[in-house]
Amino acid sequence: MRFTNLCQLKLEIGKNFRTFRMYLLSNNQKKKKRRRKKKKATANDSSEATSSKAETAATAEPTVNADTPEQAAAKEKKKLIRKLQKKIRQIEGLKEKIASGSRAEESLSPEEREKMASLPDLQRQVADFETETFER
Questions:
Q1: Per-residue pLDDT tens over the stretch 48-79
Q2: Do 13 and 32 belong to one domain?
Q3: Using 50, 70 and 90 to split pLDDT, how confident is the model at 1?
Q4: Is 1 within a domain?
Q5: Is 64 a member of any domain?
């Protein structure tokens, strides 16, 4: 709603101050105001939901989701294996680029050359971790 003259503006202020305030706000301020209203509405809804959840949780038996130390160690090993396999894939991708000719071996940085040199060691580590995991 645009006001063409000051008289119309004064009339609108008298009728509906809220509309006038929204007129004065920038677009970002309007968005923020709408977001706050939504958050308040969802907060009220969620507070009612959490109170009902609290009632049901009090009657239900507590469950334990804690991992045993062996399970935690197994998870860490799997994580490490995935990390090493990712490094191996990166090195193999680099080798493919060199083989296809899209990248010259002379243009490799010292870090990339070091990575390529560590490929057999990484493969050995992955094999060792996998055999340890399967033996258990």
A1: 666 555 555 555 545 555 678 888 888 888 99
A2: yes
A3: low
A4: no
A5: no
Beta carbons within 10 angstroms of residue 46's beta carbon: 11
Confidence class of residue 21 from pLDDT cuts 50, 70 and 90?
A: low
**Residue at token pair 């006038």:** 20
Nearest to 123 by CA among 96, 82, 85: 85
In this structure, the answer to whether residues 87 and 121 fall within a common structural domain is yes
Query: Distance (Å, rounded) from C-alpha 9 to C-alpha 3?
Result: 6
Q: Could you tell me which of 89, 92, 77 has the C-alpha nearest to residue 128? A: 77
Cβ–Cβ < 8 Å for 94, 115? yes
Helices of type H across the chain: 6-15, 17-24, 27-59, 69-100, 110-117, 119-135
Count of other CB atoms within 10 angstroms of residue 109: 8
Mean pLDDT value across the chain: 77
CA distance 100 to 94: 10
Range of the domain at 21: 6-59
Spatial distance between the Cα atoms of 108 and 89, rounded to a whole number of angstroms: 17
